[in-house]
Design a protein that fits this description.
Layout (H helix, E strand, L loop, with lengths): L7 H14 L3 H10 L1 H7 L10 H11 L3 H16 L5 E10 L7 H19 L1 H4 L4 H4 L19 H19 L9 H13 E3 L5 E3 L19 E2 L6 E10 L12 E8 L8 H11 L5 E3 L7 H9 L3 E3 L16 E2 L6 E3 L8 E5 L4 E6 L1 H6 L9 E2 L4 E6 L2 H13 L1 H7 L5 H10 L11 H26 L16 H21 L9
Parallel strand pairs: 1-7, 7-8
Antiparallel strand pairs: 1-5, 2-3, 4-5, 5-6, 9-10, 11-12, 12-14, 13-14
Helix pairs in contact: 1-2, 1-4, 1-17, 1-18, 3-18, 5-17, 5-18, 6-9, 6-10, 9-10
Length: about 500
């Protein structure tokens, strides 16, 4: 008998428009209630134009986890409308910062202990009384808390070791307790100890991130899933995107994002490329040529993509050889043995190591000593032998490096990769991904994918408006979100969102 259930179609549209206009949650609620443009775009009748903050978060919670499906369905609709060419694509990644503070080791231990102690005190106040007083003082009121008042840099290590000792004591006190041990905050204390605390036979405590935990250690207890990015040295998540592009600036083709993936910030780029190709192939957007920077470059990726029929173009890593390289030798067809050196000397023997995928090739040392190019050759000469050890991937790497130096057509094509930075610039400057207003992997992924979806809508609108090859419409001023994009959004997508939500498995009563 109460207020009618909100149309989830209009709520999903609101979340996309919120990303498009970079609105705070309170501003999105206000726009839904009072903004006539939003009413028209989302097909909201005047008597239904009311949304409470509680309802806003309720529907967002319902939709969490459906963002990938929403992105893919709208991408399919855009392709139906534009029929863009996806044979040439570029892939890049960027760090998206979360609403988290970078913490020193001392701050990390202190905040984790405070989080656990507050949790124990709130949920089990009687048990909390058994916690030693020197540990309880972490959460004393500010006016009575003198524990940290004389903290100086010279005492930083002493305080860090003391915090680690307190964490160990708290763990020993409650690790077998049936209730406390199951608290998420207490498990964070245990994780912190396992990752950073070592105790030797004499009882001396050493606080240092263990070798096996480097890159995956907890960075902030308020979002345990967040990781440091090795390149930016900041906390967040990594957004990996692939988008269409044209082989040159004169060839028209819209820049539509065909794949977006949110991963922990510590994942290496070269690990993301093959899954990205597989995901696009499943959606029907597998490229023929892939442009990336050298973060994605590896011989394994080149070989794997070649088997899939995709040509990976990325600048090779490492330095070119001084003088002759293995590529200059006469190789057998299998690429695992050498027949002759660059000067025509026949190889005496090839010892092949299948497990390590490398070969040791031997030559006559007397002939090598007499060769005028011995100083420019990778063959190492000793008293009894002359040999060169080489990985099977090395000639392929040298060939790619040579192509990037000599093949002007390849160089010109690779220049198109740089245009991918514009998408990240728009996402961060205009669509709110410079630093998210949320925490947690589930919420942050929803926010990021909604922003990418909104960028695709904006680019599709720009292309239909002016036939541009990017986000700037030809013969028009820079695009500014206005009533036009709302009308376009309503025309292109609102009728399609219901299908998305039904497929997403939401409760049927919502559509009554």
């Amino acid at each position: 008998m109460g207020r009618k259930t909100k149309d989830v179609q209009s709520m999903l549209g609101l979340f996309i428009l919120q990303a498009l206009f970079d609105l705070k949650d309170s501003d999105a609620v206000e726009a839904y209630t009072f903004d006539q443009k939003f009413h028209y775009a989302l097909d909201i009748k005047e008597q239904e134009a009311y949304l409470s903050a509680r309802a806003f978060y309720y529907y967002k919670t319902i939709l969490l986890g459906t963002e990938d499906h929403i992105f893919e369905q709208i991408l399919a609709k855009i392709f139906d409308e534009l029929q863009f060419d996806y044979s040439l694509q570029r892939t890049d990644s960027s760090l998206v910062r979360l609403n988290l503070k970078k913490m020193s080791q001392w701050e990390l231990f202190k905040k984790t202990l405070i989080k656990a102690l507050n949790d124990i005190k709130a949920k089990h106040p009687v048990i909390f009384k058994s916690v030693p007083e020197h540990i309880q003082q972490y959460i004393q009121n500010d006016e009575n808390n003198t524990w940290f008042s004389d903290f100086t840099p010279s005492k930083a290590n002493d305080y860090l070791v003391q915090a680690a000792r307190d964490a160990l004591e708290l763990k020993e006190l409650f690790e077998s307790h049936p209730k406390i041990s199951k608290l998420e905050s207490f498990q964070l204390v245990q994780r912190l100890i396992n990752e950073q605390v070592d105790v030797d036979d004499q009882g001396q405590i050493k606080v240092e991130i263990k070798e096996e935990c480097k890159g995956s250690a907890m960075a902030n207890p308020h979002d345990p899933d967040a990781q440091y990015n090795g390149h930016k040295k900041d906390i967040g998540v990594k957004l990996n995107t692939s988008e269409t592009c044209a082989p040159d600036k004169d060839t028209p083709n819209p820049q539509i994002i065909t794949h977006a993936e949110v991963t922990p910030a510590n994942i290496s780029d070269h690990e993301l490329l093959q899954p990205s190709i597989d995901a696009r192939e499943e959606k029907g957007f597998k490229p023929d040529v892939e442009l990336t920077d050298n973060g994605y470059e590896s011989d394994a990726n080149h070989q794997a993509l070649q088997e899939k029929g995709v040509d990976l173009i990325a600048p090779p890593t490492g330095k070119p050889p001084e003088g002759f390289g293995v590529m200059d030798f006469e190789l057998q067809e299998n690429g695992q043995s050498i027949d002759a050196c660059p000067m025509g000397q026949t190889c005496i023997e090839n010892k092949i190591n299948q497990k390590k995928q490398k070969t040791a090739s031997y030559f006559d040392p007397e002939q090598c000593r007499a060769c005028p190019h011995s100083e420019d050759c990778p063959i190492k000469i000793t008293k009894r032998k002359a040999k060169v050890e080489w990985q099977w991937s090395k000639p392929r790497l040298e060939a790619r490096r040579h192509a990037f130096q000599e093949d002007q057509e390849l160089i010109n094509l690779f220049k198109q990769r740089a245009g991918g930075e514009a998408g990240f610039s728009q996402l961060k400057v205009n669509l709110g991904l410079r630093r998210l207003r949320c925490r947690g992997s589930v919420k942050s992924k929803f926010k990021i994918i909604m922003a990418v979806t909104a960028l695709n809508i904006k680019r599709a609108f720009n292309w239909m408006k002016g036939g541009s090859s990017g986000s700037r419409a030809r013969n028009n001023k820079d695009f500014e979100p206005d009533t036009g994009i709302l009308l376009f959004f309503f025309w292109l997508f609102c009728s399609y969102l219901r299908k998305i939500l039904i497929v997403s498995g939401l409760r049927p009563k919502i559509f009554s």
